[in-house]
TrEMBL record:
Annotated HAMAP family: TrmD (MF_00605)
Similarity section: Belongs to the RNA methyltransferase TrmD family.
Entry annotated with the keyword Thylakoid: no
Descriptive protein name: tRNA (guanine-N(1)-)-methyltransferase
Length: 239
């Protein structure tokens, strides 16, 4: 899997060299390439933004640098196997199932906007050429797309076959199909007693049936408490 990042702050992606994703890069599972969008400007100030047509607050990212960067990084041929991701406040909420779908992609290009966003013709052009995803991390405001690109990268790469040492653990995670769409149960490890707080006795009983039942009950309780929106979904085991 090749991952490209287009941004006016490409150093954001240096962190990928030290994290788990870095290990995947070392063992050849993923290739990471960060690019400075200003490398595709031609004026002395390396300008990437301009005032919004129709007025309004802030600045909008000009289309020209994006188009020239696309030509050099992706090419000028249409190819639906190339996934181009535009993080945006107006995007579709990014989910675990979206991460799972993207984990089989061979090429993902992250377009990290700043200011008030990117000229919409960039997205329209990308849609005419590749498979485009306009996504949002959630209902809060970030200053640009870089943090979202990092989060999406981690969510996707950890699902790439061969990345996780113990793929079975993926099935038990929150939001994964194996967990019935429920939140993950609370986790404990040694010491059994810590600052007057004890590991639930059932987890030390060695009785696998009771342990499974306790974990399920805890997942249902937590999901009802924190994510009632998940309790009505078809995939959750509770209704
Ligand atoms: N993923 C994700 C994100 C982002 C995100 C992603 C990409 C960019 C690129 C620029 N920004 C800054 C920005 C902030 C606020 C606004 C809203 N304005 C729109 C125009 O009308 C006025 C109000 C726009 C742009 C971004 C933010 N924020 N939150 C997420 N979950």
């Amino acid at each position: 899997m090749r991952l490209d990042y287009l941004s006016i702050f490409p150093a954001y992606f240096d962190v990928l060299d030290i994290s788990l994703v870095g290990k995947a890069a070392i063992n050849g599972l993923v290739e990471i390439h960060a690019h400075d969008l200003r490398d595709w400007t031609h004026d002395r100030h390396r300008t990437v933004d301009d005032t919004p047509c129709g007025g309004g607050a802030g600045m909008v990212m000009k289309p020209d640098p994006w188009g020239e960067a696309f030509d050099e990084i992706i090419g000028t041929e249409s190819d639906p196997s190339v996934h181009v991701i535009f993080p945006a406040p107006s995007g579709t909420p990014f989910t675990q199932s979206a991460a799972a779908e993207l984990s089989s992609a061979q090429r993902i290009v992250f377009c990290c906007g700043r200011y008030e966003g990117i000229d919409h013709r960039v997205i329209d052009y990308a849609r005419s050429m590749w498979t485009v995803h306009e996504v949002s991390l959630g209902d809060y405001v970030l200053n640009g797309g870089e943090v979202a690109a990092l989060a999406i990268t981690e969510a996707v790469v950890r699902l790439v076959p061969g990345f996780m040492g113990n793929p079975e653990s993926l099935a038990e995670e929150s939001f994964s199909a194996g967990q019935d769409g429920l939140l993950e149960y609370p986790l404990f490890t040694r010491p059994v007693s810590w600052r007057g707080l004890d590991v639930p006795e059932v987890l030390m009983s060695g009785h696998h049936g009771r342990i499974a039942s306790w974990r399920r009950d805890e997942s249902v309780r937590l999901t009802r408490e924190r994510r009632p929106d998940l309790t009505d979904s078809d995939s959750s085991g509770i209704h």
